[in-house]
Design a protein that fits this description.
Helix content is 69%, strand content 6%. The longest helix has 23 residues. It is globular and about 60 Å long. A hairpin with a 6-residue loop joins strand 2 and strand 3. The two termini are 27 Å apart. Strands 1-3-2 form a three-stranded antiparallel β-sheet. The protein has a two-stranded parallel sheet with strand order 4-5. It has two domains: 66 residues, Winged helix-like DNA-binding domain superfamily/Winged helix DNA-binding domain (Arc Repressor Mutant, subunit A), CATH 1.10.10; 148 residues, Up-down Bundle (Four Helix Bundle (Hemerythrin (Met), subunit A)).
């Protein structure tokens, strides 16, 4: 990988190596089928092989890597994106975030609305720069802010743990499709909050989270080598 991790050697290194590799997988810097070498990564990071091995175990448990035991392909590889996991995560997100946005519509104040407007402005800047990676991070921050505003940050953390496969697809679609439409959908969500209209806010959220259902078939047809059922 081209990016060098920023490792704090005063802390446990295995979680840091895991976070670094996981981020590279989600962003597509380590695409499906890439072979992971304990020795090469340990040398690049400047650690022993043990924390790298621990990171590999966690990535495998997450469904992001797989161990192939038989020669000539024996080793650890980046797993292809699971379509079923993507669809499950999307369904759970829609159910949870639709409830959250209904709750928030009744209590959204001017301070929150101003913050959300600022978030949308920053997203627009990222799109204008054609910076898909920054947009995806800002998109996550927007949705997390909604959860935090309802007092449900812990719920967002649960969702974050479920949507690894979905996030891999989001980085691909952000580089492939016109993501300006996603900003418009965010604006519709905020408009529902501004009007204190739970129905409008929920409908906007559901439309937004269903956009992936339009993108996934097209991407899977164009890049079948990236996916498994």
């Amino acid at each position: 990988m081209s990016m060098q991790p920023n490792i704090d050697f005063t802390l446990s290194t295995a979680p840091q190596v895991y976070d670094w590799l996981r981020d590279a997988i989600l962003r597509g810097e380590l695409p499906p089928g890439t072979r992971l070498s304990e020795t090469e990564i340990a040398n690049q990071v400047g650690v022993s092989r043990q924390p790298v091995r621990e990171a590999f175990i966690r990535l495998t448990a997450d469904g992001l890597a797989e161990v192939r035991p038989l020669r000539p392909q024996r080793g650890t590889y980046i797993r292809r994106i699971s379509v079923s996991a993507v669809l499950s995560a999307r369904l759970i997100r829609e159910a949870v975030e639709s409830d959250l946005i209904r709750m928030l519509a009744e209590q959204a104040d001017d301070r929150l609305l101003a913050r959300l407007d600022q978030e949308i402005e920053e997203q627009s800047v990222a799109v204008a720069r054609n910076d898909a990676e920054t947009f995806v991070r800002l998109d996550d921050r927007f949705h997390r802010l909604l959860a935090v505003a309802t007092g449900q940050e812990a719920v967002w953390e649960v969702l974050e743990g479920l949507k690894s496969q979905m996030n891999r697809l989001r980085y691909i679609t952000a580089r492939t499709f016109d993501i300006q439409k996603l900003i418009g959908q965010h604006a519709e969500i905020v408009e529902g909050l501004r009007n204190h209209d739970p129905g409008l806010a929920e409908a906007a959220m559901r439309r937004h989270l269903r956009e992936l259902l339009n993108d996934l078939p097209e991407i899977s047809r164009a890049r079948p080598e990236l996916f498994i059922p």
